[in-house]
What we know:
By secondary structure, this protein is mainly alpha-helical. Helix content is 66%, strand content 8%. The protein is built from seven helices and three strands; from the N terminus they run H-E-H-E-E-H-H-H-H-H. The chain has helices at 7-15, 32-38, 72-148, 154-181, 184-188, 191-206, 223-235; strands at residues 19-21, 43-49, 55-62. A hairpin with a 5-residue loop joins strand 2 and strand 3. The protein is rod-shaped.
Amino acid sequence: xxxxxxxxxxxxxxxxxxxxxxxxxxxxxxxxxxxxxxxxxxxxxxxxxxxxxxxxxxxxxxxxxxxxxxxxxxxxxxxxxxxxxxxxxxxxxxxxxxxxxxxxxxxxxxxxxxxxxxxxxxxxxxxxxxxxxxxxxxxxxxxxxxxxxxxxxxxxxxxxxxxxxxxxxxxxxxxxxxxxxxxxxxxxxxxxxxxxxxxxxxxxxxxxxxxxxxxxxxxxxxxxxxxxxxxxxxxx
Length: 236
């Protein structure tokens, strides 16, 4: 927070070496207002440097007891203290950086999941409203053609019958895929209904018996939470 070039700390920030004096009254670097406010007679200002030699802080001590004033040995002690402080500060700064990175990663993951689910929702609507309707219409038209064919055209009837079955299967698969991408029950009725629907459908498709135990107190949750929990069950 200290401006470079102003007073002892500012000098240290610019030159990156300790500053010491036992004559604060005659010193031309010190800020007079600070000297008078705190009654400074002498002082040592020591930079705290990181591993690249950049300033990350400073120490200042004032007014040594006795008449001898600060010595070179005092300066060396302050430099040693600043080196210890440098390690501690850099560790703290690294930890803060890791925390910030983890938070940014968490926010990014949340945004990506939301974008992914928005895309799934869009695809689900497209499959249900467009492709699904086309397949349903195709099945109806095949059925109408089948009824219009004469009884002597057995091969045509068989082909139309097979096509009708395939169209129905494709329509059912599209509907299922649409619901798996984004079950509308999550938006309409909440997580519990969507999980019940999914468990029943999975059991029917796979032949695996599913037991779903949901608390009767399970109400509506935030949309992101409901979606995340549904995807967790789905992946499981």
